[in-house]
Amino acid sequence: QVRLVESGGGLVQAGGPLRLSCAASGRTFSNYIMAWFRQAPGKEREFVSVISTGSLFIRYADSVKGRFTISRDNAKNTVYLQMNSLKPEDTAVYYCAARGGSLTDTNYNTEANDYWGQGTQVTISS
Fold this sequence. Notes:
Blueprint: E1 2-7, E2 10-13, E3 18-26, E4 33-39, E5 46-51, E6 58-60, E7 68-73, E8 78-83, E9 92-99, E10 115-116, E11 120-125
Parallel strand pairs: 2-11
Antiparallel strand pairs: 1-3, 3-8, 4-5, 4-9, 5-6, 7-8, 9-10, 9-11
């Protein structure tokens, strides 16, 4: 079992930055592919970004490419999402997720993750 706890959400003005963290506990963090998803009000949950166990494979949704950066610190059992140039449409609950297995260009944005955090609210004011 892996427990994921997100933090760092809040209310920021458009154009500002915010950094989310997701702390993992339980099994060996470095063995898991980590991802961020988000769900805006009235919308389905969507993929944001993913990072492989060794940080060599990273992908982003087109909507956040160039503005968001995912990273991980396996020594601290934590994955981060640095969000810059935030827009009102980035408003959502952000979830981190963990899964085992392989990471490829055909499965990188899958919702089939083994573990999910409880989410952290990000609200961007215009």
